[in-house]
Amino acid sequence: QVQLVESGGGLVQPGGSLRLSCAASGFTFSRYVMNWYRQVPGKERELVASIRSAGVITNSMKGRATISRDNAKNMVYLQLSNLRPEDTAIYYCNTRDGFVNYWGQGTQVTVSS
Q: Is 71's pLDDT higher than 90?
């Protein structure tokens, strides 16, 4: 079965950096678009960035976030930099198979001094 496991979140000061990782299993990773979303309590989950094997599709945090993937390791990454308090959220790894969405458990990113 599809499994997505995020890691790398934590508490960071404004201006700091974090690298989020997502380990994927249970499907042919290289064939799927991988996404990072984030969600603040009380708000809808929002798309941060998407990547296919051929390259980046979209990135709403361009300049402060870089999405990448390693098909050999079935991993997708989100490098966050120059973080702001408003970036505080739970960050989720996601992939889609037709109309079915698969989500990880999320990793909390807290930006605070």
A: yes
The C-alpha atoms of residue 84 and residue 75 are separated, in whole angstroms, by 25
Name every residue whose Cβ is closer than 8 Å to that of residue 94 and which is 6 or more positions away in sequence: 4, 34, 35, 36, 37, 101, 102, 103, 104
Instruction: Using DSSP bridges, classify how beta strands 65-70 and 3-7 pair: parallel, antiparallel or unpaired.
Output: unpaired
> Phi and psi (nearest 5°) for 25?
-155, 160
- Look up residue 77 and give its amino acid: Y
Residues with Cβ within 8 Å of 12's Cβ and at least 6 positions away in sequence, in order, are 18, 83, 109, 110, 111
Q: What is the pLDDT of residue 63?
A: 87
